Amino acid sequence: MQLTIDSKVKEQGVSLAYSVIEFKNEAHSEKIWQEVLNPLLQKIETEDTLESIKEDPQITATKKVYRALGKDPARFRPSSDSLWRRIIQQKGLYQINALVDLNNYFSLEWKLPFGSYDLGKVTEPIQLTVGPAEARYAGIGNKSVNIENLLVLADEEGPFGSPTSDSTRGMISEETTRALLVGYQFQDDAVVDQAKVKEILENYLTDCRVIEQGVI
């Protein structure tokens, strides 16, 4: 996988824990919800509070980088922050498809933004960089996302993903068979357990094979 990080971003201590997978996606996996997601959601609802979000070291580190790059994390919340708040407020979690549901599980497990991208729709090389002035893209959910000064993943066609909100261009569908899964890490020390990511992906996605993993 040709995946790099812009030096301006790397200076902030940002890294990417990535996995490249081949698999058969499903509209819904009851096994994922019963064995993986629901127990975690119940634990968060029982044990966590909005105050614990504000004090969490991963959330704090994420917001610090956003501010350093010129983006207000209160207006453009990292997806991990938004997901965690939603669960604590007992608003539940949207069911999308098997890979996206696992993507949300990883985000809640490690309190970090995760993104999954269809490698049939985006092309290598891919770089984590910063959105240029006045840039926007079509976000998932029919919204235009202001990506100026926001961390973005970009290929030769331009930005397609970010730790706040991904674009429709690289989004995962039920037809996706090859994907890039990225955990955005905002501290110098790696947080994501790649062995656990591999185990869960291969155990819970149909015919899944992790063909490459790394941290850059």
Strands side by side in the biggest sheet: 1-4-7-8
Question: Approximately how much helix is present in the residues?
Answer: 25-40%
What is the mean pLDDT?
Answer: 93
**Oligomeric state:** single chain
Alpha-beta content class: alpha+beta
N-to-C CA distance:
11 Å
Q: What are the secondary-structure elements, in order, as H or E?
A: EHEHHHHHEEEEEEEHE
User: What is the helix tally?
Assistant: 7
Query: Which blocks of ≥5 consecutive residues have pLDDT under 50?
Result: none
* Whole-angstrom Rg: 16 Å
Structural topology:
Layout: E1 3-5, H1 7-10, E2 15-24, H2 30-47, H3 50-55, H4 57-69, H5 79-88, H6 98-110, E3 114-118, E4 126-130, E5 136-139, E6 143-146, E7 151-155, E8 158-161, E9 178-185, H7 194-204, E10 206-215
Parallel strand pairs: 1-4
Antiparallel strand pairs: 2-9, 2-10, 3-9, 4-7, 5-6, 7-8
Describe, in short, the structure shown:
With 216 residues, the protein is an alpha+beta fold. It is 35% helix and 27% strand.
Defining key terms:
single chain, 216 residues, alpha+beta, four-stranded mixed β-sheet, four-stranded antiparallel β-sheet, 7 helices, 10 strands, 35% helix
Q: How would you explain this protein's 3D organization?
A:
With 216 residues, the protein is α+β, with helices and mostly antiparallel strands. It has seven helices and ten strands. The protein has helices at residues 7-10, 30-47, 50-55, 57-69, 79-88, 98-110, 194-204; strands at residues 3-5, 15-24, 114-118, 126-130, 136-139, 143-146, 151-155, 158-161, 178-185, 206-215. The strands form three sheets. A four-stranded mixed sheet has the order 1-4-7-8. The mean pLDDT is 93.
